[in-house]
Automatic annotation (TrEMBL):
It comes from the Bacteria. Residues 2-160 form the Heme NO-binding domain. It holds the Pfam family HNOB. It comes from Winogradskyella vincentii. This is Heme NO-binding domain-containing protein. InterPro entries: H-NOX_domain_sf, Heme_NO-bd, NO_sig/Golgi_transp_ligand-bd. Signal peptide: none annotated. SUPFAM superfamilies: Ligand-binding domain in the NO signalling and Golgi transport.
Length: 179
Protein backbone atom coordinates (compact mmCIF):
# COMPACT_ATOMS: atom_id res chain seq x y z
CA UNK A 1 0.00 0.00 0.00
CA UNK A 2 1.38 3.38 -0.99
CA UNK A 3 2.72 5.63 1.72
CA UNK A 4 0.49 8.57 0.83
CA UNK A 5 -2.42 6.52 2.17
CA UNK A 6 -0.61 6.24 5.52
CA UNK A 7 0.68 9.81 5.74
CA UNK A 8 -2.73 11.26 4.96
CA UNK A 9 -4.44 8.85 7.36
CA UNK A 10 -2.18 9.90 10.23
CA UNK A 11 -2.71 13.56 9.33
CA UNK A 12 -6.47 13.01 9.52
CA UNK A 13 -6.14 11.23 12.88
CA UNK A 14 -4.09 14.15 14.22
CA UNK A 15 -6.60 16.71 12.90
CA UNK A 16 -9.68 14.89 14.22
CA UNK A 17 -8.40 13.19 17.38
CA UNK A 18 -5.09 14.85 18.29
CA UNK A 19 -1.41 13.99 18.23
CA UNK A 20 -1.79 11.85 21.34
CA UNK A 21 -4.14 9.55 19.44
CA UNK A 22 -1.62 9.22 16.60
CA UNK A 23 1.02 8.21 19.14
CA UNK A 24 -1.40 5.85 20.88
CA UNK A 25 -2.43 3.93 17.74
CA UNK A 26 1.17 3.69 16.50
CA UNK A 27 2.43 2.54 19.91
CA UNK A 28 -0.36 -0.04 20.20
CA UNK A 29 0.47 -1.53 16.80
CA UNK A 30 3.24 -3.92 15.78
CA UNK A 31 4.45 -2.00 12.73
CA UNK A 32 7.39 -3.11 10.62
CA UNK A 33 7.85 0.56 9.65
CA UNK A 34 7.64 1.68 13.29
CA UNK A 35 4.99 4.15 12.11
CA UNK A 36 7.43 6.12 9.98
CA UNK A 37 5.98 6.67 6.51
CA UNK A 38 6.89 8.59 3.39
CA UNK A 39 4.27 9.40 0.79
CA UNK A 40 6.18 7.54 -1.95
CA UNK A 41 7.08 4.47 0.12
CA UNK A 42 5.27 1.14 0.03
CA UNK A 43 4.02 -0.49 3.22
CA UNK A 44 2.07 -3.56 4.22
CA UNK A 45 -1.71 -3.33 4.32
CA UNK A 46 -1.54 -5.11 7.68
CA UNK A 47 -0.08 -1.89 9.11
CA UNK A 48 -3.10 0.12 7.94
CA UNK A 49 -5.41 -2.53 9.33
CA UNK A 50 -3.70 -2.36 12.73
CA UNK A 51 -3.89 1.44 12.79
CA UNK A 52 -7.59 1.34 11.86
CA UNK A 53 -8.33 -1.34 14.47
CA UNK A 54 -6.61 0.61 17.23
CA UNK A 55 -8.28 3.86 16.21
CA UNK A 56 -11.65 2.10 16.20
CA UNK A 57 -10.97 0.65 19.65
CA UNK A 58 -9.93 4.03 21.06
CA UNK A 59 -12.72 6.09 19.51
CA UNK A 60 -15.63 3.65 19.54
CA UNK A 61 -16.16 4.29 15.81
CA UNK A 62 -16.45 1.34 13.45
CA UNK A 63 -13.71 0.73 10.89
CA UNK A 64 -16.28 1.26 8.13
CA UNK A 65 -17.20 4.69 9.54
CA UNK A 66 -13.53 5.59 9.95
CA UNK A 67 -12.91 4.65 6.31
CA UNK A 68 -15.82 6.88 5.21
CA UNK A 69 -14.35 9.84 7.11
CA UNK A 70 -10.90 9.08 5.78
CA UNK A 71 -12.19 8.96 2.20
CA UNK A 72 -13.67 12.44 2.61
CA UNK A 73 -10.29 13.70 3.76
CA UNK A 74 -8.46 11.87 0.98
CA UNK A 75 -10.77 13.29 -1.69
CA UNK A 76 -9.77 16.80 -0.62
CA UNK A 77 -6.12 15.75 -1.02
CA UNK A 78 -6.92 14.61 -4.56
CA UNK A 79 -8.74 17.88 -5.28
CA UNK A 80 -5.73 19.90 -4.13
CA UNK A 81 -3.03 17.69 -5.66
CA UNK A 82 -4.65 16.73 -8.97
CA UNK A 83 -7.17 19.42 -9.95
CA UNK A 84 -6.62 18.70 -13.65
CA UNK A 85 -7.78 15.12 -13.22
CA UNK A 86 -11.08 16.20 -11.65
CA UNK A 87 -11.52 18.97 -14.22
CA UNK A 88 -11.57 16.29 -16.93
CA UNK A 89 -15.12 15.40 -15.86
CA UNK A 90 -18.42 17.28 -15.86
CA UNK A 91 -20.52 14.62 -14.18
CA UNK A 92 -20.10 12.30 -11.18
CA UNK A 93 -21.42 9.21 -13.00
CA UNK A 94 -18.86 9.76 -15.78
CA UNK A 95 -16.05 10.19 -13.29
CA UNK A 96 -16.93 7.17 -11.15
CA UNK A 97 -17.46 4.95 -14.18
CA UNK A 98 -13.98 5.87 -15.44
CA UNK A 99 -12.11 4.78 -12.30
CA UNK A 100 -10.71 1.65 -13.90
CA UNK A 101 -9.96 2.93 -17.39
CA UNK A 102 -8.74 6.45 -16.63
CA UNK A 103 -8.18 7.34 -12.97
CA UNK A 104 -6.34 4.13 -12.07
CA UNK A 105 -4.26 4.46 -15.26
CA UNK A 106 -3.17 7.92 -14.07
CA UNK A 107 -2.47 6.62 -10.54
CA UNK A 108 -0.24 3.88 -11.98
CA UNK A 109 1.79 6.52 -13.82
CA UNK A 110 2.62 8.10 -10.46
CA UNK A 111 2.76 4.87 -8.43
CA UNK A 112 3.58 2.03 -10.86
CA UNK A 113 3.55 -0.64 -8.16
CA UNK A 114 0.28 0.46 -6.55
CA UNK A 115 -2.11 -2.39 -5.78
CA UNK A 116 -5.47 -0.92 -6.69
CA UNK A 117 -8.93 -2.40 -6.43
CA UNK A 118 -10.81 -3.13 -9.63
CA UNK A 119 -14.12 -1.59 -10.61
CA UNK A 120 -16.11 -3.41 -13.26
CA UNK A 121 -18.98 -1.43 -14.75
CA UNK A 122 -21.99 -3.71 -15.22
CA UNK A 123 -24.59 -1.12 -16.19
CA UNK A 124 -24.39 2.58 -16.91
CA UNK A 125 -27.00 5.17 -17.84
CA UNK A 126 -26.97 8.95 -17.58
CA UNK A 127 -28.32 8.76 -14.03
CA UNK A 128 -27.29 5.35 -12.75
CA UNK A 129 -24.32 3.06 -12.43
CA UNK A 130 -23.84 -0.51 -11.23
CA UNK A 131 -20.27 -1.57 -10.50
CA UNK A 132 -18.45 -4.48 -8.91
CA UNK A 133 -15.59 -3.56 -6.59
CA UNK A 134 -12.98 -6.27 -6.04
CA UNK A 135 -10.01 -5.96 -3.70
CA UNK A 136 -8.13 -8.22 -1.34
CA UNK A 137 -8.13 -5.31 1.12
CA UNK A 138 -11.87 -4.93 1.75
CA UNK A 139 -11.77 -1.14 1.94
CA UNK A 140 -15.10 -0.73 0.15
CA UNK A 141 -16.23 1.97 2.61
CA UNK A 142 -13.22 4.02 1.54
CA UNK A 143 -14.51 3.67 -2.04
CA UNK A 144 -18.02 4.57 -0.88
CA UNK A 145 -16.71 7.71 0.81
CA UNK A 146 -14.84 8.74 -2.34
CA UNK A 147 -18.02 8.23 -4.36
CA UNK A 148 -20.02 10.37 -1.92
CA UNK A 149 -17.44 13.14 -2.19
CA UNK A 150 -17.47 12.86 -5.99
CA UNK A 151 -21.18 13.68 -6.04
CA UNK A 152 -20.61 16.51 -3.58
CA UNK A 153 -17.79 17.87 -5.81
CA UNK A 154 -20.26 18.11 -8.69
CA UNK A 155 -22.96 19.70 -6.47
CA UNK A 156 -25.09 16.62 -6.89
CA UNK A 157 -26.47 13.84 -4.73
CA UNK A 158 -27.07 10.16 -5.18
CA UNK A 159 -28.40 7.09 -3.48
CA UNK A 160 -25.51 4.61 -3.26
CA UNK A 161 -26.34 1.07 -2.18
CA UNK A 162 -23.52 -1.24 -1.21
CA UNK A 163 -24.23 -4.98 -1.46
CA UNK A 164 -21.57 -7.40 -0.26
CA UNK A 165 -21.12 -10.21 -2.75
CA UNK A 166 -18.50 -11.83 -0.52
CA UNK A 167 -19.12 -11.55 3.21
CA UNK A 168 -15.53 -10.45 3.90
CA UNK A 169 -16.07 -7.36 1.73
CA UNK A 170 -13.49 -8.25 -0.91
CA UNK A 171 -16.20 -8.19 -3.57
CA UNK A 172 -18.98 -5.62 -3.39
CA UNK A 173 -21.66 -4.33 -5.74
CA UNK A 174 -22.28 -0.59 -5.80
CA UNK A 175 -25.68 0.48 -7.13
CA UNK A 176 -25.64 4.23 -7.72
CA UNK A 177 -28.69 6.30 -8.59
CA UNK A 178 -28.22 10.01 -9.18
CA UNK A 179 -30.92 12.16 -7.53
Amino acid sequence: MKGIVFTEFLELVEDKFGLEMVDKIISSSDLESNGVYTSVGTYSFSEMLQLLQHLSKNTGLSIDNLLLVYAEHFFSVLEDSYPGLLATYNDPIEMISSIENHIHVEVRKIYPDAELPTFEVLEKTQNSLVMIYTSSRAMHHFGLGLMNKTFEHFNSTANIVLEKIKEDGTEVKFIITKN
